Amino acid sequence: MLTNAQMRRILDTFAEMFPDAHCELTHSNPFELTIAVLLSAQCTDALVNKVTPNLFAKYKTPQDYLNVPLEELEQDIRSIGLYRNKAKNIQKLARLLLDEYGGEIPETHVDLVRLPGVGRKTANVVVSTAFGVPAIAVDTHVERVSKRLGIARWKDTPVQVEETLMKRVPQEEWSLTHHRMIFFGRYHCKAQNPQCQVCPLVDLCREGKKRMKEKVKNN
């Protein structure tokens, strides 16, 4: 298990490497952010950002999404994976917002996870990014980085990873750490080709030490 000093070093390294880390999904309000995060499930932010400019120009309110046939909305997001299911969820979400929340995105995690297509991770992103509530959303990058660095166990579920991070990271740093870990995983500690040879945390990293040993052996 990492010591408090090692954990502090990890957090400070994230901050040094990616001081400007932020949510990369294009949006201008909580409603657009929620739609964008819903669309990003099993899909890259870059692909979502190609689709949302036209989508958000066409659909401004929950009612706008309900004013078109499902098939039309499907076509508008067709290039995104699972587009049929996501289109259905968007219309169901829009209906629930109008029926129970006055057409506005709710600000609490409890209410957000009631929305169709919005799971724990999406809710954490929305409360953190849109409403400034401290939260850590565990996506594939955060999970991978946490496990490689030994913050979490290999067998941990995303919820267990989230709970561990909430214990090990000071609450006032949750949201920033979430974004920095995503950037660290997306641009440095990649799934297939992590940059272990130039990583300042390689001495703490289980995966990195293994890869560097194999590299030495193969040379």
Can you walk me through this structure?
With 219 residues, the protein is an all-alpha fold. The protein folds into two domains: 4-21 and 136-218, Helix-hairpin-Helix base-excision DNA repair enzymes (C-terminal) (Endonuclease Iii, domain 2), CATH 1.10.1670.10; 30-131, Endonuclease III, domain 1 (Orthogonal Bundle), CATH 1.10.340.30. The protein has twelve helices and no strands. It is elongated, with a radius of gyration of 19 Å. The mean pLDDT is 95. This is Endonuclease III. It holds the Pfam family HHH. Its EC number is 4.2.99.18. [4Fe-4S] cluster binds at residues 189, 196, 199, 205.
Helix and strand arrangement:
Layout: H1 4-17, H2 30-39, H3 45-58, H4 62-66, H5 70-76, H6 83-100, H7 109-112, H8 120-131, H9 140-148, H10 158-168, H11 174-187, H12 206-218
Helix pairs in contact: 1-11, 2-3, 2-8, 5-6, 9-11
End-to-end Cα distance, whole Å, is: 31 Å
Number of helices: 12
Biggest β-sheet description: none
**Total domain count:** 2
Report helical residue fraction: 55-70%
Helical/strand content category: mainly alpha
Low-confidence segments:
none
Family: Belongs to the Nth/MutY family.
Pfam families: EndIII_4Fe-2S, HHH, HhH-GPD
Binding site for [4Fe-4S] cluster: 189, 196, 199, 205
GO molecular function: 4 iron, 4 sulfur cluster binding; class I DNA-(apurinic or apyrimidinic site) endonuclease activity; DNA binding; DNA N-glycosylase activity; metal ion binding
Relevant terms:
Endonuclease III, domain 1; 219 residues; mainly alpha; single chain; Endonuclease Iii, domain 2
